[in-house]
């Protein structure tokens, strides 16, 4: 489901940027920066770059009895964390707000804080088996 959301978002953003740029082209082939769709297309580009960055940093978490292995999907990089390096696991409630108050009920994610001061986020938005991962990590900690 995560991949589908990313693909639809990237496709829609790219399509809209191309359409808005095409609408903004003047008869001589230059962009008309005084035309609002040109600026909308320019504002879409940072979101597309952020989405590419997010997809490139996708990771897979393997929980064993001795350690946690974090492998990055698109890079040949992995990290190994021993359970005694975990300081605590903080549960975070993510909720969207507007001027009138909360928009939705939100969802929970977990921040795994390490002894060295670093942390990594385990979110149900990125991991379908979020509850199983957190349970496995907590059950293997001292």
Brief account:
The protein is of the alpha+beta class. 39% of the residues lie in helices and 29% in strands. 4% of the residues are buried.
Number of strands: 8
> Would you tell me the structural class of the helices and strands?
alpha+beta
Could you list the spans in which at least 5 consecutive residues all have pLDDT below 50?
A: none
Order of helices and strands: HHEEEEEEEEH
Q: Rg to the nearest angstrom?
A: 21 Å
Mean pLDDT across every amino acid position: 84
Number of helices: 3
Q: What report would you give on this structure?
A:
With 142 residues, the protein is of the alpha+beta class. It is built from three helices and eight strands. Strands 1-2-3 form a three-stranded antiparallel β-sheet, with helices on one face. A hairpin with a 2-residue loop joins strand 5 and strand 6. Helix 1 packs antiparallel against helix 2. The protein is elongated. It starts with a helix and ends with a helix.
């Amino acid at each position: 489901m995560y991949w589908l959301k990313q693909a639809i978002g990237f496709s829609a953003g790219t399509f809209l940027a191309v359409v808005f740029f095409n609408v903004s082209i003047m008869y001589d082939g230059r962009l008309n920066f005084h035309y609002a769709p040109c600026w909308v297309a320019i504002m879409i580009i940072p979101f597309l770059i952020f989405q590419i960055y997010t997809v490139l940093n996708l990771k897979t978490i393997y929980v064993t009895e001795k350690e946690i292995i974090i492998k990055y999907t698109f890079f040949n990089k992995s990290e190994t964390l021993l359970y005694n390096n975990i300081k605590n696991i903080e549960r975070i409630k993510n909720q969207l707000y507007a001027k009138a108050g909360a928009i939705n009920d939100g969802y929970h994610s977990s921040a795994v804080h390490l002894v060295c001061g670093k942390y990594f986020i385990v979110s149900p938005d990125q991991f379908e088996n979020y509850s199983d991962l957190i349970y496995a990590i907590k059950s293997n900690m001292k």
